[in-house]
Write a structure and sequence with these properties.
alpha/beta; globular; two-stranded antiparallel ribbon; Rossmann fold; five-stranded parallel beta sheet
Length: 218
């Protein structure tokens, strides 16, 4: 694979770059779409999946938001804890067992796409699904470049990964527009999330770990 672009690219350029590198690959390909809240991860992942499907590829869409921990685990360090937001939001054990291992290049292909329903705060055990030997697995979510999602050799588990670059102020503005949350990045009511994501960026440097950085601020 060619060296990744040095500077962030546009959304259109990023889609083209990814499709051109995914199409020639054999077997299963794992692609991560990472970014802060409001970066546009789900939308971009959907657009990429559509482009790949139009190219004749089989695509499996997974969202890490469907692998949450129960509320008592998510808030074990307090409802305002940025560290707790990073450490306790997601059930990585289920995510690895149900998605990463079975859908990896050497996995059995027997996977589940979700383990938790946030709306009802209910654990889920849906029927197993079976992926074809040749498929592209597109995963969107927060914190996808953290150390916990690296293999025994310390390398990321993704065949390709993306960091959607969006300033914190724009992220908060989008969330306020979408969810009615506070629009001020310094509002204490959203400190857990804003500071947690700042800690993630400082600690794990996802833009450096990603294969592609896309300017998704517009």
């Amino acid at each position: 694979m060619e060296t990744k672009p040095i500077e962030p690219v546009s959304r259109a350029e990023g889609l083209s770059w990814l499709v051109s590198r995914i199409r020639p690959r054999a077997g299963r390909t794992m692609v991560a779409i990472d970014g802060v809240d409001g970066a546009g991860k789900t939308t971009f992942a959907g657009d990429l999946a559509a482009e790949l499907t139009d190219s004749g590829l089989t695509v499996i869409r997974i969202s890490l938001d469907n692998f949450l921990n129960p509320a008592e685990v998510r808030h074990a360090q307090g409802r305002t804890s940025p560290e707790g937001f990073i450490a306790d939001t997601y059930d990585y054990e289920r995510f690895v067992d149900d998605v990463l291992e079975p859908l990896g290049s050497e996995g059995c292909g027997r996977y589940r796409s979700k383990s938790y329903d946030f709306g009802t705060e209910t654990p889920l055990t849906p029927p197993w699904q079976v992926a074809p030997d040749a498929a592209v697995v597109v995963v969107d979510g927060l914190f996808l470049h953290r150390d916990r999602l690296r293999n025994a050799r310390g390398r990321k588990v993704w065949d390709l990964s993306v960091w959607l670059d969006v300033p914190a102020e724009e992220s908060v503005r989008r969330l306020a527009e979408r969810d009615g949350s506070p629009s001020d990045v310094d509002d204490p009511r959203i400190r857990r999330y804003v500071e947690g994501q700042r800690l993630y960026i400082e600690r794990y440097r996802p833009a450096e770990r990603a294969d592609l950085v896309i300017d998704n601020s517009r």
